[in-house]
Amino acid sequence: MLAEHGWLPTSASAELNASTESWLADAAGWLAPQGTDRESLAQLLSLIFHYDAREALAAQEAHAVLLRKGSREVVRALAHEILAGGDFDSEQYKAIVERLNVTIGHRGRGLFHPIRLALAGRVGDGELDRVIILIDRAASAPGLAPVKTIRARILEFCAALD
Q: What is the pLDDT of residues 3-42, one digit of tens each?
């Protein structure tokens, strides 16, 4: 599937290193159960390899999220956390969510929808958290198509927001 979409060039598939193979195994294990069919799995993977903040903000669901009280505050605090932090992985993501939960006081959709919109480019449920965790590892995995990092995404999103 990755090769079909150009996310794993066929010439690179023979030269995969351990970090890329680990990423592929995690992506399959974490996202395959979330995809109800091949197309939905491809849509989840596309969120890793394609990110355009202006495109994400143009969606009607993005407007609904950003009109909710506190959504922009969540995005600003998220940007601050990401830009101040180190590597973005599962532990860092959990720590950021916990700090935002404590400092801003939002829970559930009020917290997660703005985060998922800013970083994955779409509003959705828990499957997007798995996508978000895979992004920086994909960006640094040799042999995969270029991926915008979490830092690049939050900067692009904030620039497009205002």
A: 889 898 766 555 678 889 999 999 999 898 887 889 999 9
- Write out the chain in H/E/C secondary structure: CCCCCCCCCCCCHHHCCHHHHHHHHHHHHHHCCCCCCHHHHHHHHHHHHCCCHHHHHHCHHHHHHHHCCCHHHHHHHHHHHHHHCCCCCHHHHHHHHHHHHHHHCCCCHHHHHHHHHHHHCCCCCCHHHHHHHHHHHHHHCCCCCCCCCHHHHHHHHHHHHC
**What residues have CB less than 8 Å from 87, skipping those under 6 apart?**
136
**133, two tokens:** 């965790």
Residue pointed to by tokens 């922009």 = 72
Distance CA 2, CA 7 (A): 5
Q: What is the pLDDT of residue 13?
A: 52
What is this structure's pTM? 0.90
Domains in the chain: boundaries = 15-161
